[in-house]
Structures are given as structure tokens and as C-alpha cells.
Specification:
This protein is an alpha/beta fold. The protein is built from 25 helices and 17 strands. It folds into four domains: 246 residues, 3-Layer(aba) Sandwich (Rossmann fold); 37 residues; 154 residues, Rossmann fold (3-Layer(aba) Sandwich), CATH 3.40.50; 129 residues, 3-Layer(aba) Sandwich (Rossmann fold).
Amino acid sequence: MIDLLSNIDSPQALKHISDESLKQLSNEIRKFLIENVSKTGGHLASNLGIVELTLAMHSIFNTPKDRIIWDVGHQSYVHKLLTGRKDLFHTLRQYKGLSGFPKRCESDHDCFETGHSSTSISAALGIAKARDLNKEDYSVIALIGDGALTGGMSFEALNHAGHMNTDIIVILNDNEMSISENVGGLSKYLNRLRSDPKYFKVKDDVEYFLNKIPAVGKAMYKTAGKAKDSLKYFLVPGIIFEELGFTYLGPVNGHDIKELKVVLKRAKNIKGPVFIHVLTKKGKGYSYAEKNPDKFHGIGAFEIESGNVIGSNKKKPSYSTIFGKTIVDLAKKDTSIVAITAAMPSGTGLNDFAATYPNRFFDVGIAEQHAVTFCAGLASNGCKPIFAVYSTFLQRAYDQILHDVCLQNLPVIFCIDRSGLVGNDGETHHGVFDLSFLSHIPNMTIMAPKDGHELSDMMRFATTLNTPVAIRYPRGTNDDFCKTTQEPIQSIKSEVLLNGKDVCLIACGKMVQIAYEAAEKLQSENIFATVINARFIKPLDEETILSVCSNINHIITLEDNVIIGGFGSQILELFERKKIIDKNVALLGLPDQFIAHGNTDELFREYEIDVLGVMNQIRKMINQ
């Protein structure tokens, strides 16, 4: 049998392949994806589920002239394979290698960069309108998942698209599951469509029948119109999208290439906005991914035969696990504690809480803005809401944090997972801006634990405060960096871990251990450093910091956040307020740029905030 995939170097090659050969090609692509992602890690299940749909799209449309916008973008692997990047797949998500998301610098076929959900329809509508204004002629296709469709931005875009009535195609890739089970009324509506699939032929038959009714004058015509509107509520699937101004086609079998091509051709020739409902199976073709799509949504390197992650460390709990255990323990003692997630109960560690206290657990779907204001409402009436959220996704709710929580000084606790550099997902997923966009908001208290023990203690302390609190912690395992007896936190106090005369290292969060290890190693060079675990980014423990720094001239701040507006800036502002001008201060953190994807250790080395980099900075400062 001919190896078809090896001969595909552009989407044009698909134009001359039969539907039967495309079936063979889909099997080859699945095999290729499983073999390659098992080595690099990545988003496997979503890509296995979209093979036929991607092949059909590239068979009917002509990128890069036609524009395909991928919502989130983690399901674009097949698209990358078909657009000349097959030979680079061994570098997927590796430092300076192929991105796991669409990147305009990689290919002309990637017309818009994505990484967060619910953005594709808005972007596609903007592209389509620019096409119209420029009097150009090409198709614009937005691909969106059923999970992303629950995001409010999607509805804003659908509403606007129906109003604009421009040519645009929205394809709903409905695999019945995002990262976790979908929630909400829209999910239930889609379930009804799946369970009773009336294809677009039904709609055509109904309209054909109504058009045959003899119309005697305007009155009869209006009557027929009313009858049509009444009947279609019973007979036409996807009526919610029809009412928004779209022509609805589907549901369609997302693994039947022939059927997909027929529907896509039809959509291409329909004027105005079109909505295609495609049913797919997440993880299709790999049994482990089909059975556990959440595990294989985003996975590290794994053994193909067993589906087990390679080198997973089960001895050390992750910060997410520690958070999950702690919130359950706190909730046992305090019945006012409730937990909120935006479609990430497993990733944030809330599964046990959801099982133990189902009436106090709320998954709002992919709707971070709503989640924050929902928390504000809970807090305004006696509850203690704890919102577990990834740092990169909290960015989407900045106004709600400021306007609905902090302005009213409501006791909402933000437990911010995946803060700092998170690795292979790259620019869109690094949590390196939270300190900067939270620090300037009045009433906000910000903490960063140096280890899992301190995370638990900070969560306990946060529940005693009657103010907004943010606790940020990194992705990955906890190293139990307990270098002191760790008295329970009772107030806004930092801790001094080492005393030295030459330089003072003031660090927060993950950077505390790096600072401590650098200081220990430099002792052999007769360089002695003080190490302060700041604990609190806002408000600062000014008393301890000023006291310790009073007799030390060289001061270095360390953070895994962008330097602009971050923790180091807080220290500089403190010195400025206190008129301290005789100190040599260096800020270590991340530069004013978006950080590319790559292994976290590689990125820490690249930006010289690993142990060796910190040691070099200390030597340089002292020698100067």
C-alpha cells in the first residue's frame, strides 16, 4: 500500500485524492500523531478527533487564500502536517521548535495566532469584514469547539455576525467534551441535537413544502411566513443559530469525509453566515485517548503500548494536588467556603472537593469573566469563594477583578495555578503577567508560597482575611523546600532564610529556592548572601525588608514574572518612598517580551534566572 502522507507537502495535493484514499490518509495521520506526540508530548486527543474534518476543509478550501481560524489552536496539528511542516514535527513544543499552536511566523497557512478559547469567531468576522472592505474574494472559516462555544465572547461574535450578514462559515467541532465535561444550557441544547440528528435535508423539505402553498395576496403570504416560523421550531435543528441569523447545517458525522465535503461545498456557496455542526469523537483511533480524553487532552511523553506518561513522578505531589487537599480540609471546618472553576476542575485540583461538597462546587464553563463576578456575588452574601484558575486565563477577567471584586473589597480568594513559566505551551500559556496586573489594584493582597507547605498555610491565612486575596503558585511538583520551622502565618510577615553580609536576595514564590541554592553554592567562594522569602508581594513586609537591607549595599530581587510592574518594582518603589538611594539594586525576572515555548529548565537558563544565572548575577554585582 502506498504511503500517502509522505507525498503530502501542501493542501493542494489533497485536491487529486479520492475519498477512499483520504480515509487511508486519515489512518496514516493518526498513526503519525500518536508516534510523534508520544515522544514530545502535546495535545493528542483533540487532534485525533479532527483528522477527517481537517482533511475535508483543506480539500474544499484553498489556504492560504482562504482563511481558517482555529479556536484555541491546540487542535491544529493535522493542519500543520498538511501545510508543509511534517518534517519539523519531532521538534513540536520543543525550545526553538514547532509551536503547538498556530503561528504566523511558521506558515502563511496560519493566518491568525490563538491559544485561549472563544476567540475564533470574532477574529474570523474581522477578517471577513476586511475582505469585504478591500473588495476581495475568499472564504473565511472559524473552527470552534463545543467547550469554547460556552464562552461569552463566542456569543458576542455570533450575535454580531448575524447582524452584519457577511459571508462567514463557523464550524462547531462538537466532541461532547472540552478539557472537562461541558456545563450549561448550551451544552444541554447540543445534547438534544446530537440525540435527535435532523440533517439539513429536513430543513430543505420543510421550506420546499411551505413554498408550494398557494399565496393569494399579501395576507396569505404573511400567513405562510408565520406558519414557516412555527413549523421550523419543531422541525429544524439548530434553531438557536438560525435565530441569530445563520444558516444551520447539521449535525454532520465528523468522521465521514464524503459527507463533510458535501456539506462544506454547500456552505461555501451560501450567502451570509453559515453554521456547520460537526460531531466528532475526541481521541478517535487510539483506545487510551478515547477512554481518557481528559488525560490525553494535554499530555507529556508517553508509552504508546500502555498509555502511561514516561517519567511521571508520583512520589511528589503537585501544587495543584496540595491546593485540592487543602481546600477540602478547610471546607470541613468552614461551611461558608465554596469552590469555583472555569471548566478546569481536574487541572486545578478540585475533583475531590467537587465529590465531597457537590453543593458547594461550581463549574461555570469557559467563562472566566462570569466566574469572577459570580464569586463577587457569593462573597457579598456571606460565602468565602475560592476561584481556582490558571494565571494565563485569569488575564481574561481583569475588569471583573478590579470593578466587581476589589472596588467593593469583597473577600474572594484567587488561587492562581500555573503562574510563572509553564513550558511547552509557550506565549499564550505562560503565567508571567499576574503580579503586574494585580499589584496596582487597590485592596488586593498578593502572596506567593515557596513550597507546598507554605501554600496550604497561605490558603488558611487567606480565609481569615476580609479582603480580596491572590495566591500564585507554579506548575509542577512541590519540592518541600522547608528550611525553617515555619510558624503559621499570622500576619503580613516575610521570613529570613539565610543571613549574609555581601548581598541580599529578596525572592518570591518559586524563586526562593533558586535564590537559596545560589547563596549556598557561593559560600565556597566566600560570598555570603542574605535570603529573604518575601511571601507577600502586596502589601510588602516593609519592616523586615528595610531592616535587613539597611546594612547591605547589594540587593537583588527575584521573580518568575515580567520585571515591568512586578515584584522588583514594588521593592524599588518602597526604596523610593523611604528615600533610600545608596543601594545597588538589580531586578531579576523576565524581559519585556513574550516568552517562547520550551522546556521550563531551558527557559530559566535562557533568561538567566536559574541557579547558575543568579550566581553569575551576584558575582557580577559584587565585582562591579
